[in-house]
Predict the structure.
Amino acid sequence: MKHPCRDPNGLDRFRLLAGVLVGRSVEVAQAPAGTAAHTDGRVIFVRAGRSDAEQRRELLVQAALLGAGSLDPRVVKALRGRPSLARHYLALEGRRVLTELADRVPLAAELSFDTGVDTATADESLAMARRRRPVIDPPEWFGVIRPSRLLAPGARPTDRESRPEFDPLHVSVADDDGDAEQSGEGKSAKLFENPLFRSRTLRDLFRKQPGSARASGDGPIGAETPMRAVRRARRAGKQVGSLPTRISFIDGGKPGAVGGAGGTLYPEWDVHHDRYRPEWCRVIDSPCPANDDITDTGVPPDDVLRRRLARVGLGPRALRGRSAGDELDLEALIDLFVDLRSGYSPSENVYREHRKVARDLGVLILLDASGSATDADPDGRTVHGHQRRAAATLAVTLEELGDRVAVYAFRSHGRHAVHLHAITTFGQRFSAVGRTRLNQLRPSGYTRLGAGIRGAGEILKTRAGTQNRLLLLLSDGLPYDSGYEGHYAEADARKALEELRGDGVGCLCLSLGADTDSTALNRVFGSAGHADATTLAELSPHMDDLFLSCLRELGAPKPVRG
């Protein structure tokens, strides 16, 4: 059944942005011909026949007004039947909400206004609009405010008491705003909704009973986990458990990760303002999705790679019977005296030497599984195929050498959904199950590279269980996501690698089968170790040097020759 508000012209691509700004699920549709952009509280209408950039700006204004509570009923009622007042209010309030949003949304930061913002709240904007003083008309892309549609029965403007903050990552308590009753959802199902986590198990059971139809306001079929409105809690009720504690960091002003249900929040580096955006990206660590058909596909051995990596020594080891060393070897001295008393000519190798040749290494192989990895070379082999084969070969080889290995893949769908898919975790063998998961992995989504690196780095630091740790990134080096591209994205990825190296984690970035030029790779990976080639076999003869160049700051020695 076709959704009554779904637009057939591809405007669904704006629903994520609209939901983030409003704090709840809203629809996006084209306005009738000749009609300006507006909203009725449930649907945001943008003008037909406009470019993506123009429609995105129109949506930004209307969604920001809804999210800020600027279209609450008590305000809209004052605008009913007074188009001039509504226009002045829109001019003042639209500029105010976009200015406040600029610190959190890069798209809003790109918009500039000739005049400053004179109001701090919706009430002040309304009061100033009522005064007999000139107000500059709003730009055409601000759209209009239609009080009759916002106040019509069934409209759902956000209630001011429960409206979300602009950044829904500041989650303390889920907002129970009673939308279900207004959208036609039965009160009996509402009784079984957990106010903290919104568990839908019992609600779905009641919905499936005869006569319990799915509410049209719940989004498309299959959208069982809609974006929820949230707000900061000023005080907790008697039945509420402990809330997440906000953490202060003193390490050079760098915010850290904040864990919680539904993922971990990480900062993002804003190169344009030379500062971090704390708790900006949500990274979700979950098992890699795969079907039950486990077909074990062998991994061809790479003898050159194995020989080279076997030369890498990391941990301390005492070598006995040396001709020179750090201290005397007591057992060798005893043997020396016994031999002398027995009339033999003993060896004079009576020293003990401490050398770092024992391996104590944890490696996390991070595979870029975004949609950009579908690009193919002239032979039809994709970047994803090259990287997937390299990940399997590296995992098998490192495991054979006794290292602790984990394999993860990452992709993103906006800053609120950066997924880290666990193919094998630390402590698991890269067995037939892991190889099947890797083979069934299909690229999709986008590449929020900095968040993926930070999430993988945290896993490596807390779960590897080794003294020496290395992040091995397989990526085409093309970061891109919603509001994440160009110089901004490159600087954030580079910053994330710098952070890990500052925490004592080696970083090696390999770009295989991609046509990304070396200049672009240098901008993304910075001073971290990186190399590019068509296949892993081209890099195998140099892999020991690549590993050691990344681990040298951890105190790794030169390769053990011989």
Observations:
- The chain has 19 helices and 17 strands.
- Confidence is low (pLDDT under 50) at residues 1-7, 157-203, 205-252, 556-562.
- The CA atoms of residues 132 and 197 lie 48 Å apart.
